[in-house]
Amino acid sequence: MRLLSLTNASLDSLLCSGSTVHVCADGGANRVFDELPCFFPHDDPSDIRKRYKPYAIKGDMDSIRTDVLDFYRGLGTKIIDESHDQDTTDLHKCVAYILELLNPEHPNLCILATGALGGRFDHEMGNINVICRFPSMPIILLSDDCLIQLLPSTHHHKIHIQSSVEGPHCGLIPIGTAGGRTTTTGLKWNLDKTEMRFGGLVSTSNIVKENIVTVQSESDLLWTISIKKE
Prior knowledge:
CATH architecture of the largest domain: 3-Layer(aba) Sandwich
Function: Catalyzes the phosphorylation of thiamine to thiamine pyrophosphate (TPP). TPP is an active cofactor for enzymes involved in glycolysis and energy production. Plant leaves require high levels of TPP for photosynthesis and carbohydrate metabolism.
Distance between the termini: 32 Å
Protein name: Thiamine pyrophosphokinase
Family: Belongs to the thiamine pyrophosphokinase family.
Oligomer: single chain
Structural class: alpha/beta
Largest sheet: 6 strands, mixed
GO cellular component, one term: cytosol
EC number: 2.7.6.2
């Protein structure tokens, strides 16, 4: 059984929550540089950028600004240029790098990817493909509006809903192939050995009704739930 729980989705809390390593995917460093000081309006922007500097910036380096690259390089951030690899996305490169740095077998290891949703649809689909390529690693894609995580069919999933920060809107979506039979509890419209597929039934615009949602499926599914705005 795999247990899922989101405790807080805000960027400042994620950075302050004791994460082991912070890695920026190419142009993601621009967003950290520009937006992070906004979460600490009473502090000096330069101090905030130094306090939360990324451990590494990795990608094909086609999006990061020169001033941002020079700033973080001066702070000792590792700059890893993989422009020779055009077959994988920047997120894929960063996930692979994190798994090289850390023990992928650690039971509490989870990768949170902020800024992975929104913007160009092909980028979103590329990022969703990344979590499907690493099915044994819990990877959560976060935006201001929702999160997405893969639920592998190899597990019976028990999802703890943190109602103060997420929900109630949610969905279960088959990805890649037609979904096998799926059974859920804790939703307004539960599934009972229901088969899902594109061109047929998919469980979108569902509603969380309980503090715990369970999902058991014969095929991999995407779980998505809305994020509450303060």
